[in-house]
Design goal:
This protein is of the alpha+beta class. It contains six helices and eleven strands. Removes the 2'-phosphate from RNA via an intermediate in which the phosphate is ADP-ribosylated by NAD followed by a presumed transesterification to release the RNA and generate ADP-ribose 1''-2''-cyclic phosphate (APPR>P). May function as an ADP-ribosylase.
């Protein structure tokens, strides 16, 4: 890896999130149905777009990203985002039994509307839930003063709601109805 600063790595990581999760067409990239993109093509098209990195930098980002947002296939020829897509992809998730309680971090300002309408996926493919409150707080802080909802995930699962576990440990579901929220 050439001399890349932490700020440059953060910029590249955000760019990868944008391209691999939301706007691959921005650089002329076409993911397959499972969200995989050719690694060499990603590097070449990103560099042509003006976001410059090499394979070693890309490996470093994938290996050190604290949220494990990206994954390589076994031979490193393909890369994809682990979850959080707004584009249509099949990440090959399988319905799994979640823990009894999962957590959802949001901004305090969203609290009352969520208590009435539940947690919606909005422009994402799934609602994102955390297995621990600390992660949910980190998520909520990105949007303002954090508020953490406890979700009765196992009850939802027993009531036929599907849950998936992404490669980076995020629990996913399509919707959390308000009756499954525990209010402190």
């Amino acid at each position: 890896m050439n001399e890349t600063t932490d700020q440059q790595l953060k910029h590249i990581s955000k760019f990868l999130s944008l391209v691999l999760r939301h706007q691959p067409q921005m650089i002329g990239l076409t993911p397959d149905t499972n969200g995989w993109c050719n690694t060499d093509e990603l590097i070449t098209k990103s560099n042509a777009y003006g976001v410059r990195f090499d394979i070693d930098t890309l490996k470093h980002i994938v290996e050190t990203n604290d949220k494990k947002r990206f994954a390589f296939c076994d031979n490193l020829e393909k890369i994809r985002a682990s979850q959080g897509h707004s584009i249509e992809v099949d990440l090959e998730f399988h319905n799994q039994e979640p823990p009894e309680i999962l957590y959802h971090g949001t901004a305090e300002i969203n609290r009352s509307s969520i208590m009435q309408a539940g947690i919606e996926k909005r422009n994402r493919r799934h609602v994102h839930l955390s297995k621990d409150p600390a992660t949910a707080i980190q998520v909520g802080q990105r949007h303002g003063k954090p508020y953490i909802f406890k979700v009765k995930a196992l009850d939802m699962h027993h009531d036929k709601y599907e849950f998936y576990l992404s490669a980076n440990g995020v629990w996913l579901t399509d919707f959390v109805p308000a009756q499954y929220l525990l209010i402190d």
